[in-house]
Specification:
The chain is of the alpha+beta class and 281 residues long. The chain has two domains: 2-64; 73-279, Fumarylacetoacetase-like, C-terminal domain (Fumarylacetoacetate hydrolase, domain 2). Helices cover 12% and strands 30% of the residues. It has six helices and 19 strands. The chain is globular, with a radius of gyration of 18 Å.
């Protein structure tokens, strides 16, 4: 299933995309795509719904982030060997964990607001996963069973805040609009191998990132099991898993985002995002 949330910001309704690419309403089935509606039992119920019996949503509609009421948004840094090497960093022996503020979550096609005073705003196409059942100290072999589904995250980062201002990465990761999610959540049953997905990103029509989740240092199952040793993950929590080679700060010379720039990015089977950068008013 491809689960979505559509409508004006703050007033999104739950929906799904059928095999013909049509947007159908789930408002009579679930209150929202959030929390317990992502549990295995709830997703089994949704799979039994006949799409032809759901109301068709007509006309163009804004897509919001496909998950509502996210409790935690956790990131993994330097999880692709080529990206890590180009950045001049040492390959981690354990996953590097940081948090992104949930207030950074954005719709997949909503504008990215470059903060006032920002100097080095950067892009990062990433595979993210959403928790469907509580995960606390789970074993790697059991980890994937705790996932509700997968989606795209653009882990937008202000590098001057991340590297030049001291402290943790969080301040460079959590600015408003710095976590576009979606366009939809693809349920786990439709992603048989999360380590076999191609991902890419274009800036102003020029290819910047091309990679595969096969090249992750730490795979999805390991990441979930590892994070759950320290942090209990709850239904609706989102974990984003790192980015491949091609970010702006790792280029020579560096390239950073500015107002007017456009980004297009995607992951095989998970859809695409198209966003533009705007100056913060």
């Amino acid at each position: 299933m491809k689960l979505v949330r559509y409508g004006a910001p703050g007033r999104e309704k739950p929906g799904m995309i059928d095999q013909a690419g049509r947007l159908l309403s789930l408002a009579a089935i679930v209150p929202d795509i959030a929390g317990e509606s992502l549990s295995p039992a709830s997703l089994r119920k949704l799979r039994r719904v006949k799409p032809e019996r759901l109301p068709l949503v007509r006309g163009p509609k804004r897509l919001g982030a496909p998950i509502a009421n996210v409790g935690k948004l956790i990131g993994i840094g330097f999880n692709y060997a080529d990206h890590t090497a180009r950045a001049g960093m040492t390959l981690p022996t354990e996953p590097l964990i940081f948090t992104k503020a949930v207030s950074a979550i954005n719709g997949p096609n909503d504008p990215i607001a470059i903060p006032k005073g920002a100097e080095k705003t950067d892009w990062e196409v990433e595979l993210a996963f959403v928790i469907g059942s509580k995960a606390s100290r789970v074993k790697e072999r059991d980890a994937l069973s705790h996932i509700a589904g997968y989606l795209i995250c653009n882990d937008v980062t202000e590098r001057s805040y991340q590297f030049d201002r001291g402290g943790t990465y969080d301040k460079g990761k959590g600015c408003d609009s710095f976590a576009p999610l979606g366009p939809w959540l693809v349920t786990r049953d439709e992603v048989p191998d999360p380590q076999a997905l191609d991902l890419w990103l274009d800036r102003n029509g020029q290819r910047m990132q091309t990679g595969s989740t096969a090249h992750m240092v730490f795979g999805v199952a390991f990441i979930l099991g590892y994070v759950s040793q320290f942090i209990t993950l709850m239904p609706g929590d989102v974990v984003t898993t790192g980015t491949p080679l091609g970010t702006g700060f790792s280029r020579k010379p560096p390239i950073f985002l500015k107002a007017g720039d456009r980004l297009r990015l995607g992951i095989l089977g998970l859809g695409e995002q198209e966003t533009r950068c705007v100056a913060t008013r």
